[in-house]
Amino acid sequence: MARLWRLNSLSCASVSILVFVLLLNAMDVSCDDYLVPGYYRDSCPLVEDIVRRHVLMAIRKDPRMAASLLRLHFHDCFVMGCDGSVLLDSRGSIESEKGADPNVNSVKGFEVVDSIKFALEIACPAIVSCADILAMAARDSVVLRGGPNWDVYLGRRDSLTASFSGANKFIPLPNSTLQTLITNFQAQGSHTIGYSRCLNFRQHIYSPLEQDEEEYAEGSTPDYCSQQKKRKSKPDPVFRRILRSTCPITGRDNSLTPLDYSTSVFFDNHYFLNLMQGKALLQSDSSLLSSTYTKELVWAYASNPRLFYRKFASSMVKMGNINPLIGDQGEIRQNCRFVNSQSLTSP
After folding, report:
1. Residue 99: beta bridge partners?
2. 75 assigned to active site
3. How many whole angstroms separate alpha carbon 79 and alpha carbon 86?
4. How far apart are CA 52 and CA 136, in angstroms?
5. How far apart are CA 145 and CA 70, in angstroms?
6. DSSP string of 18-54, one letter each residue
7. Residue whose C-alpha is closest to residue 299's, from 226, 236, 240
8. Degrees (nearest 5) of the Cα angle 167, 336, 121?
9. CA end-to-end span of the chain, whole Å?
10. Torsion-angle region of residue 278: left (phi > 0), alpha (psi -120 to 50) or beta?
């Protein structure tokens, strides 16, 4: 199975960011010279301070916003590349990605991006792209929740259009199989914090437990793991009962459950520990134990948080390099919700 990579979703309804780390780290995504750290050093020297301050205020108001901002960057990059297209509202010929199945009633944080953009337009008008704001806000969200830091490569420009069909096609769903996740990542070149809606994990928790246990018993952990570790990787029936109390077989579709029960608002490696103990919330998470390669990575990250942090930071840099617009491509939007040619009063 050639190369794998994947992400941990920090917000309601997405695949986990963790899958992103596993899969993306094995991808060939080049970090070419067109994106560089310190891109705005002369043109807008306070840009990172401004972004960080607004992200901090948003997270203090609602800790779940960290997950939402990280996820916005992820959902942006997997549709046409990291170009700010996910931020566009429907207007004129543009059909917003916000209404696509993986995004509707799920992606959040647009108002935070609006406030950052407003402040930057005062400090340095028409300089900082919305796509770069997403990249910086994602990094700051992780750091402010206790996760790793990394240099954000900047210099992206904003798209002139959105892709509703692309959002439906390329953003992985919570019930994705491992092969589907791999295919989606290949087409483009971690839940550790956040929540998911009942609608996105109901099918997983009401599937026959006996069948799941049989699948996991066939080898859901690396060959070198002990039999005790192997038993812990089976679906946890107590965990399922807890989830079913929150998410009945019908109704309460929008009820929220933490992706990580033990440390839901902190960025750490508990997602992997939970996975090894059979406490995967989403079907896409469980699929990581269906491959020997990903099983070994799950165990490695569960046992070595520093390794996970290092790989996660590397994956974020790689993801930020997926098909950015540079040079005279696209534009620097003055309002992240609209392209510059659209007046705010146009239909």
Report:
1. none
2. yes
3. 8
4. 8
5. 11
6. HHHHHHHTTS-----TTSBTTTTTTT-TTHHHHHHHH
7. 226
8. 160
9. 49
10. left
What mean pLDDT is predicted for residues 151-178?
A: 85
Q: What is the pTM of this model?
A: 0.71
Question: What is the DSSP-derived secondary structure letter of residue 173?
Answer: P
Q: What's the CA gap between 231 and 218, in Å, rounded?
A: 11
Burial of 228 from C-beta contacts in 10 A (0-12 / 13-18 / 19+):
exposed
Summary mean pLDDT of the chain: 76
Which residues make beta-bridge pairs with 196?
Answer: 257
Catalytic residue among 54, 73, 75, 204: 75
| 283-318 as b/e: b if 16+ CB within 10 A | bbbbbbbbbeebbbbbbebbeeeeebbebbbbbbbb
Angle at which helix 130-144 crosses helix 110-123, to 10 degrees, equals 110
Using alpha carbons, select from 113, 190, 189 the residue that is nearest to residue 148.
190
Within 10 angstroms of residue 244's Cβ, the number of other Cβ atoms is: 14
Residue 44 has pLDDT above 80, yes or no: yes
Q: Which residues pair with 257 in a beta bridge?
A: 196
Mean pLDDT is lowest, of 155-164, 276-285, 309-318, for 276-285
* Per-residue confidence (pLDDT) for residue 1, from 0 to 100: 28
